[in-house]
Amino acid sequence: MQNLKFDFRHCHKWAALLAERHRKLNQAIKAIYTGNFEVAKKLIHEVFYGDRSGKSADPGMLGSLAYHMAMVTKMASESVIIQKAPKC
Predict the structure, then answer these.
(1) How far apart are the first and last CA of the chain?
(2) What are the residues whose beta carbons fall under 8 Å from the beta carbon of 25, sequence distance 6 or more?
(3) pTM (2 decimals)?
(4) Does residue 67 surpass a pLDDT of 60?
(5) Which pLDDT tens digit goes with each residue over 16-60?
(6) Residues 6+ apart with CB under 8 A from 40
(7) Nearest 5°: phi and psi at 4?
(8) Which of 84, 81, 49, 77 is nearest to 65 (CA)?
(9) How far apart are CA 64 and CA 49, in angstroms?
């Protein structure tokens, strides 16, 4: 079995991404309260659908959800295959 190691940089990257999404949502809420709906719409779109303008593309929350749902489905399928595999 592969030795799994905790990768602080990877976890930090995702934590920073979540903090950035939270910041954008807060900015969107402020924009809504001030009646600046175009700014709010842009920020909400970036959070949910992603932002590909920077050097590191963000798939957005919907992209992340689709990816993680695919991984869960893959893992569930692998468990079924392993359980049904002939015993050697």
Answers:
(1) 19
(2) 43, 44, 47
(3) 0.66
(4) yes
(5) 888 999 999 999 999 999 999 999 999 999 999 987 776 667 788
(6) 28, 29, 31, 32
(7) -90, 135
(8) 49
(9) 9
